[in-house]
Amino acid sequence: MTAVPGAPDAGLETQIGHWRGYVQRHGVISPDDVDELEGHLRDRVADLEQAGLSGDEAFLVAVKRLGILDEVSQEFAREHSERLWKQLVLAPELPEESVTRPTRELVVVLALAVAAAVAIKVPELVGLDLTEDPAWYARNAGLVVLPFLAGYFAWKRRLELLRSVRVLAAPFLLGALVANAYPYADGGSTEVLVVIHLPILVLLAVGLAYVGVDWRSHPRRMDFIRFTGEWVVYYTLLALGGAVLVGLTLAGFAAIGLEISLFFGEWVLPCAAMGAVLVAAWLVEAKQSVVENIAPVLTRVFTPLTTLMLLAFLVAIPATGNVVEVDRDLLILVDLILVLVLGLLLYAISARHRQAPPDLFDRLQLLLVLSALMVDVLMLVAMLIRITELGVSANKVAALGLNLILLANLAWSARLSVGFLRGRRPFSDLERWQTDYLPVYAAWAAVVVVVLPPAFGYA
To answer: pTM for the full model?
Structure first.
């Protein structure tokens, strides 16, 4: 039987009734507090349903999250957590009308994954070979696959076709123009910069599709940050599993005297790499009720380790007596470390509950940010000295701009974190600052991709 739009979900109301009875029976919360807590629960369920979860899934996730606010609700979530794990099954036992949309979504994702896999081989029709033209494929890989990912989210969010095409197409068209019209010098640094920064620019279109072209919504921006973390984790897991499978397959065929490595290199690997982008995104979306905890767990593991590394670095450089005369490779390595710090900060913020009081991990994060801030200042001094001595280049300008952007972000993040730890600022200020700052990264990526190549003669 098809549900009437706007009508109460009987199953959901029953589950909320059970939850309310559980909370009331423990007698540690007043009736008014139970009413307020139920209001929070219903708001969270509504948000999750709007994001694409079913009523049952939305209820379980909302109760799990609400457990942070209330110990009784947390106990309820623990006692019923086995139902969350059952949702890991890709074909759950649900009423037929409940699985219609998930099944249709899987078909759409598989179709888009196949289309992306085919698209990476289309350039061969005009004579572009992966082994002979790796630079072209490196510049255009994101332009080949990410439109399909944006299309998936546009379909999932039910965006109006003409409006979504008009808004989402601009970054891809700009990227295609820059990647293929600029006369890059062979082995030039500006081409490498485009390869690195162009995916960041076109990822903006994916983000717009993910949030439903409502980029002004701070919670939706943070949802996209959370998604990217889980997406990278799942893609990495798929890649590792695929590598093992490929290795076993090649070894098996080699054992019987058949050499298929050329076929795998030219067809299986590039096609699988493109298709896995869509599959990983679907896994995050379909199972966000459980997989959303992966990136925060990794964040808690690597935050103290990265902090120790930065502190050791700050001690080691002065000990060498060579504070500013650092080489180019070290500057690149430190930039990668600073980007890692930014990722740890973003995903920790995205997983933290706004109303939870400051704890030890918040203080550890502040130490991480302050350490990264000092390293960033040290590297900026080294960069300015190198520019003064050796002159300006595209690489130096790109690195200098990135470090200045990170410096501003880290400095203000540290200020907001101190205010939060001292009880003078709400945690939401720190979250809002990060979501407000996202367009800055996209803008700088656009400058590097569009402006720097012609400014430095495409060399």
So the answer is: 0.74
